[in-house]
């Protein structure tokens, strides 16, 4: 478990594709419990330690996950995620190039619970929810493309489903049409960064998750570095009123 940022109210973790955010039917130990153990040990806390889940990532996805250490932070972060008062950036690796190097995808997604899968449609239909994302191709190798993605909505498997719908399934994502699995069992979708105004201190927080320890991801990181696109975690004490261009 890698801690990317921590203060009295929040702790931000770099999740791997083998970890789950909270308990599920697998019985595997979730990050929420790992963090409780970490805090008990680090601060010598007796008894129960409060940890609140503010949002989730699919198990095969890696990257930034924010947890609350206080009920006040949890309530306010839940409101921020619901109202989209923060910005999350994802990186996705695809074999195929999108129709254009930059664009917006708008679909209507229907979630089928028994399959744990979503399906995209061009027009609304009963049970469908509108899904909007913006993408940009930011790097490429001989065989793969790296897309940067900003979500306007947060639907079930949204990025995976919408990219598959345009013929660009994410590398390793068998559920959405990629022909081969990744060696680590994950998919090449990474929650790269999160930007928000701290719910208590009101500081501007920008947290970046390093790419997975994989040769393809490292190659993309080197390409990004060559472009001079520096992206690092920081805390700004006196942010502007709207530091990350949020709604």
Secondary structure topology:
Blueprint lengths: L1 E5 L3 E6 L15 H13 L8 E2 L8 E7 L2 H13 L3 E8 L7 E11 L4 E5 L7 E12 L4 E7 L6 H8 L23 E9 L6 E5 L6 H12 L7 E3 L11
Parallel strand pairs: 4-10
Antiparallel strand pairs: 1-2, 2-4, 3-4, 5-9, 5-10, 6-7, 6-8, 8-9, 10-11, 11-12
CATH architectural label: 2-Layer Sandwich
Query: How many domains is the backbone divided into?
Result: 1
Count helical runs: 4
**So what's the overall shape?**
globular
Strand content: 25-35%
- Count of strand segments: 12
Give the terminus-to-terminus CA distance: 32 Å
Largest sheet: 12 strands, mixed
- Give the CATH topology: Pseudouridine synthase
Structural class: alpha+beta
CATH superfamily: Pseudouridine synthase
Question: Any low-confidence stretches, pLDDT <50, length ≥5?
Answer: 241-247
Order of SSEs, N→C?
EEHEEHEEEEEHEEHE
Describe the structure.
By secondary structure, this protein is of the alpha+beta class. It has a single domain (2-236), classed as Pseudouridine synthase (2-Layer Sandwich), CATH 3.30.2350. The protein is 19% helix and 32% strand. The protein has four helices and twelve strands; from the N terminus they run E-E-H-E-E-H-E-E-E-E-E-H-E-E-H-E. It has helices at 31-43, 71-83, 158-165, 215-226; strands spanning 2-6, 10-15, 52-53, 62-68, 87-94, 102-112, 117-121, 129-140, 145-151, 189-197, 204-208, 234-236. Strands 1, 2, 3, 4, 5, 6, 7, 8, 9, 10, 11 and 12 form a twelve-stranded mixed β-sheet that branches. The protein is globular and about 55 Å long. The two termini are 32 Å apart. The model is unreliable at 241-247 (pLDDT under 50).
């Amino acid at each position: 478990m890698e801690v990317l940022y921590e203060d009295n109210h929040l702790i931000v973790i770099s999740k791997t594709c083998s970890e789950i955010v909270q308990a599920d039917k697998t019985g595997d130990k979730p990050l929420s419990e790992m963090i409780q153990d970490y805090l008990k040990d680090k601060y010598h806390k007796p008894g129960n330690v409060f940890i609140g889940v503010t949002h989730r990532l699919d198990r095969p996805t890696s990257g930034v996950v924010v947890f609350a250490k206080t009920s006040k932070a949890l309530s306010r972060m839940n409101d921020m995620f619901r109202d989209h008062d923060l910005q999350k950036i994802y990186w996705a690796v695809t074999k195929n190039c999108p129709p254009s190097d930059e664009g917006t995808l708008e679909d209507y997604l229907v979630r089928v619970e028994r399959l744990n899968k979503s399906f995209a449609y061009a027009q609304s239909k009963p049970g469908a929810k509108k899904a909007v994302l913006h993408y940009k191709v930011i790097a490429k190798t001989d065989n793969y493309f790296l897309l940067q993605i900003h979500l306007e909505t947060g639907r079930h498997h949204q990025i995976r489903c919408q990219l598959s719908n345009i013929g660009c399934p994410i590398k390793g994502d068998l559920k959405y049409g990629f022909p081969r699995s990744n060696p680590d069992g994950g998919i090449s979708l990474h929650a790269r960064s999160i930007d928000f105004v701290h719910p208590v201190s009101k500081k501007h927080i920008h947290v970046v998750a390093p790419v997975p320890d994989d040769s393809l991801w490292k190659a993309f990181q080197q390409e990004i570095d060559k472009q001079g696109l520096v992206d690092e975690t920081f805390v700004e004490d006196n942010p502007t009123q709207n530091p990350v261009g949020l709604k």
